[in-house]
Structure formats: structure tokens, C-alpha cells
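Input:
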Amino acid sequence: MQAATPAFSPLYQQIKGLILQSLQSGEWKPGESIPSEIELAGRYRVSQGTVRKAIDELASDNLLVRRQGKGTFVATHAEQHVQYRFLKLAPDTGNLDSEGPSQREIVDCKRLRATADIARALALRSGDPVLQVRRVLSFAGAPTILEDIWLPGNPFKGLTAERLSAYHGPMYALFETEFGVRMVRAEEKIRAVLPDATQQKLLQVASGTPLLSVERVAYTYNDTPMELRRGLYRTEKHHYHNALS
Amino acid sequence: MQAATPAFSPLYQQIKGLILQSLQSGEWKPGESIPSEIELAGRYRVSQGTVRKAIDELASDNLLVRRQGKGTFVATHAEQHVQYRFLKLAPDTGNLDSEGPSQREIVDCKRLRATADIARALALRSGDPVLQVRRVLSFAGAPTILEDIWLPGNPFKGLTAERLSAYHGPMYALFETEFGVRMVRAEEKIRAVLPDATQQKLLQVASGTPLLSVERVAYTYNDTPMELRRGLYRTEKHHYHNALS
DNA sequence: CAGTGGTCTAGACCACACT
DNA sequence: GTGTGGTCTAGACCACTGC
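Output:
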């Protein structure tokens, strides 16, 4: 008698896995088109409908983007209509774009060794090399977001403050093109906090001003954590927007 | 020459609309099963596959729940595995259930006339009758959430503090069974704020304690707003959790 | 025009739940 | 066993894009 392991896996799930492998391996890069459904059906020896269902799920996971008449493309953080896909902060009136281009200032960028909590979040070991970036985002001239970002040192070898400052566009787009790291999903933990002296200065707020603390872990393929980000948001003129369904 | 109105609508979208109508009209009530796919295909004179696609979308919108071998059911806030479907607050360790049953205390419940901002949020006119409820939720014995809730007076005629206190289970479940109002989706705006004297007392926090302000508008079918809720969350031991994808 | 994704159908068969 | 949703196939045709 076997142990009860149903292990039934629909064909389309297996196809989904194969497509995922090709995405991870870099066979199809962000922004590029993948082979047509008919072509993939031939390659995997299944019907077009089965490939279709696999692609449907990957599209609803935001890994692929379908464009009728043109093809299916690997999702990317660059040239994506939504400039800030993971940033849920919105002005109380209008939208982020209407506030003109945001200003980014890299305050600090250094290599150091992971503390225990950083290591845990990034699935590293304490003492492993990590990169720490601190930056301030301003909207309509007012400093609004202070972020500390930790990245595993190995995949991001060669990332410098100059590189970051010179790049105009989403940081995650730079990660894709320069380091081959594509962020797929993220989780955030949000709290209300008070700023310390340093934070007050950088955000130009008085002590005692309540701020939103947003701790984000971003994952690449395979649920591998690749970024820890601790943000402080000013919420006098902005709010964190979330849709529940 | 006509104005350019392609107005092409796939069959399954039309079916989706018809099913939605039946949901709104109450032909199928929350928790009940809807007719089988084959039956619906016969009723609408389309193939099972087309009905399937319509139901697929309604299921991914959380309006229907499919259960293999049993049927397709109208989603409900009662008996739903996720006790708190719209509450994104989580303890820093463990989960809400592990903290034992939450305690709810109705602080206040009165009828009044809508102010301008309440009216706007609920798509009413200033001065229209509304019901206001104030309550405190405690987890593990500690008051954690203070909520002010505004409901349009008409659909919620007969709702009283006694009714609310007596009911054990999600408030949205009571809305379904007692008032035939099913909340389908919601939007939240989150800020960091400081409590006023009344709020300090109810939440048992010191002045100057930063709190999460969560303003929610909940909608029933047809994008009709049916509830405005302003919550204050203590975030010393809890956090607002959000998944981005 | 050819090529892509999108829709619709019809039928066969599988997995699951209840009786 | 019967009925439900779930998978898979094959083929026809539609809508959109770009040459």
C-alpha cells in the first residue's frame, strides 16, 4: 500500500511550471514577447486551450501581459503604464502623476553585513554582505517618503549611489535591466509610528508627527525574497490606498 | 454616420451580467447554491463553456464560490473560513484566531442626519437619515480598534444597538441575513494620526500615541456605497497586512 | 493580407461529494 | 451510481495589429 499521495496535477499547471522555468532562466526577458500560443502548444505537445489556461493564470499573477493581435509579453516594471506598481501612496486629490515628476535623492548607499533581522527577512545568514540604500522621495517639492532599502550583496554587485542617482525610472526597472532581478510580488506590514531625530530632519517634520511605517519584503520568482524596504510616509496630504475584494 | 461605438460585448460577459442581475434581485441568496452550469447553459441558450467563463470571473471577483462535486454557491460573509474578510489587521505573531474570540463593545448607536462628507461618501444628500455606530474591538483583552460606522438609514431600518450586541459573527453577515445587503468590495484610505481625548480614553492609550486611521467605503452590487467606516487601529502589537502583486 | 490573442462550441473524460 | 465542477481536446470563427 502506498502512502496516500494523490499528487494529481492538471496538465495546464505543469505547462505553467514549464513556462515559469523559462521565465526564471531568462529565456524570455522582461518586455519581450514569448512564443505564440500555437507555437507553445506544439512545443509542449498539448492543445492550444491548455496553453491558454496556463498563460491566463500567469497573466492574472502579473507575470505575463497579453495584448490582442500582438502577442504575449513578459511583464516589466519599465514602460509599464503604472509607473509605481508597488507604491500605494496617493495624493488626497488628483494622482501622483499630476504632481509632476517625483524627486529622488539618494541620501546614503553603503555595503555592510546583515544583522539578524535583516538576514531573516532576506533569507540570508547574519553577517552576509548586504547593500543598504537610504533615499528621500519628494512630491510637489515636499519630502514625503523616507526609505531604507536592503538588498542581498551578491545579486546586486556593482550597484552604487551614482548608478541609482543617474537612473530615471522605477528602481525595480533598473534591477531588471542591470541585475536580471525581476520583482514579482511583495508583502507589506503597516504601522503608525513617530519619527526619531534623523527621520524628522530628512522628512522635515516636527517631532510628534505621526507617520506611516511601511515594511515591505519583495520577492522574485520562486518566492525568493530579494529586497527589504522600510518606508516612512507622510500622510498629511497623501494616503495609502488599498482596494479590498 | 453613427458615432464610433464598437460596443462589442462577448457572450460570456452578457451571461455574467444576467447572473449578476439574479444575484442582485435576490433570486439566489448568500450561502445558497446557484443552478448547475448545464442548467444555466440551457436557460441562457449557450454552451456550458460560456457559462463557465462567466462564473469563473464572478468567482474571481469573490461573488461566487465554486466547490467541486457540490456546486457553485453565492459568497457570504457568514460561515466563511476567513472570519474577517475585510479586516487586514494581524497580530505581529500568530493570527487573529489564535488570540481567542474578539470582544466587541457597542459604545454608541444612534440615528442622525448626514453631514456633507458622510453624504458624499454614501451617495446620499446632506440631511438624509443615517445610522451611526461606534464600537470598540478588543483582542487578547486589549482594546485595539475603535470604529465609527455610518450606514444609510433606509436600507438599515430597524438596526439597533441591542441587535448588534446580540449578534455574534461578522457584522457584514448580519447585514446579509437581516437587511439583504451584501458587501462586495471596499476601498480603504490609510493614514497615521494622533487620537483626541475621547479616542484616547476608548482605546486606553496615552496622548501622542500614533494610530492607524483606516477609512473604508464598502460597496454592494452595482458599486453602490452602503457603508462608511472610520477605524483607528493600535499598532504596537498588530500591523495592517497587505499583499501586493 | 497573415498572424496574434479572444470567443464559442461540442464532446469526452476525470475528480470529487453525496447517497 | 449520479450529479457536480474540472480538465482537455479540436475546430470554427471573431477582433485587433501591423505589414
